[in-house]
Every structure is written in C-alpha cells, then in structure tokens.
From TrEMBL:
It comes from the Bacteria. Residues 1-20 form the signal peptide. Keywords: Signal. Pfam families: PBP_like_2 (PF12849). The lineage of its organism: Bacteria, Pseudomonadati, Bacteroidota, Flavobacteriia, Flavobacteriales. InterPro entries: PBP_domain, Phosphate_ABC_transporter. This is Phosphate transport system substrate-binding protein. Residues 35-274 form the PBP domain. It comes from Flavobacterium anhuiense.
Amino acid sequence: MLKYSKVLGLMVFVFLFAMCNQKSKNEAEKETILKGSLDITVDETVKQIVDDQVAVFEGTYYDAKITVKPKSEAEVINDLLNQKAKVVITTRDLTPQEKTRFEKSKINPRVTPFARDAVAFISNKSNNDTLIALKSVIDFIQGKPDGKIKGLVFDNPNSSTVRYMKELAKVNEVPKAGVFSFKTNNEVIKFVSENDGMIGVIGVNWLYQPTPDMTETIKRINVLSVKGLNSNNYYSPTQTDLALDKYPLARDLFIINCQGYSGLGMGFASFIAGDIGQRIVLKSGLLPYKTPGRKLKIRSEIIKDKE
C-alpha cells in the first residue's frame, strides 16, 4: 500500500510539473519581440508620430498588436513609476531620482532616443508679425509681461510643454493671469486660430501631421520663428534648423521599456530606432536620431536608353 502511494504521489508530481512547464511555455509563446499585444502610454504632444510608427510596425508584423494610450507627461511618468505602464514614449529622459526608484525595485529601464522634436509657438494668421523672442515668453511666464504678448495657451497643465517652459523660465508655476490651458494640442490650435493676440505652445508634430479635421484650421495660424536667449537671429522648428542645432526649443523623444524581458516593447524600440523607423521620422517632419542611410550605385559609363 505504501509503495502504491509513493508511485501515485510521483505520478501526480510529474503531471503537475509537466503542466507548469506547458503553462510557462504557452505564456512565453504569447509574446515575442515581433508577436503579441502591448499597450504603450504616450506623451499626447507626440502622438501623431507614434501612430505612424505603430501603423507600419503592425503592417509589417501581422501578429503584433500595439495600443497607443495618449496622456499628459505627468500621467505617463506616474504610470511608469507605479508599474501601471511597462512601455512609454516621452519627451525627456528619466531623472536621477526616477532611475534610483527603479533601481530599488530592481528594474532596469531601457531608454532609447529615436527623434528630435520641438516646442512650437503659434499665432493667429491675422498677426503679420511671425517673429517672437524667447525672452518675451519667459518674461511673461515669470509675471513680467512686456505688452507684446496678450496671452499664452497651453494644452494641459500637466503636459510636457508646460514643464518645458517652466524649466526654461525657472518657475514652479505659471501665472494665472493671461495663461489658458485646454486638454489637447488640437484645442490649442483651434483657440489660437479664433483669437487674435494669443500665443499657442504646442508640440510641432501636430502642425506637420494634423488630423484630417484640423487641416483647414492649421491654415489659419502662423508658426513663429524664435530668437533664442543668446542669439540675434530667428529660427523655425524645421528639420534643417533642428539638425543645425539652431532652434532654441528643441527636445528629444525617448521610448522607455520596463518590461524586463525580450518582449514586444524591445521589438518596437528596435524598429523605431532602426532604418525604417528613422525614415518614418524623417517623413513626418521631425529630425531622426540617426540619419537613414542611402545606397548610391556608381556607374563607370552612361548607359543610353534604347529608343
């Protein structure tokens, strides 16, 4: 009887062990670097370029499904720190304090830069002056308006553009008087297009790749050229001025992966930092982090086409 019990116990153990191995195998097969499903939390100011990358990625790898969740920068970072999001796209790298927090949790975030973006100033089309000094904007944020700006319009109090401008102005809060905020970049563009004297502060990607319903609205605003704090010249948020490091409001885009294994997050990060992903960035109007290569075929003689 005792011998029978031991044999039965051994059989149960082998069965459970086999089931556990099968379960682990099935879970591993659910997601690879090119297969599975993934939620990516994205800074709302750069959603357009991410949508383009996801569309091509899914069109190339049919077994991959990526859901883009746009949020304010504060929400993106909080979700990442609280492990509610495993893969995010931001307009800044992690701070030393944030990296320390991950180290305490024994998490090693993989941070991959993939594009250079810009904060853009826009005004109503009726405003003939398409130039603006960064100092005037900073003075306004510091509560020292010079009369040249009627009001500033931001997308969201917790957005990356607000954080960016507060850091430039070295203030903890923007003034309540003369500062307006909405929820999205499109709302900022629409408000500025309908109100003279207002200066909108948005991510430039929304101007280069407007949603279909915003095409006509974009025509009613000006993208302003900006004079930096240590410059006498004005520069625009174009690929050329970004590449030459002339535009004073440039910023890099990062994909931060905290999955901790070789999953779809790693595959997508490699894709957008690779040749195809960088070509998508180039076509979008932003500046690729790495210039896509071009192959030239040199011929020793001219071959005339047959008539």
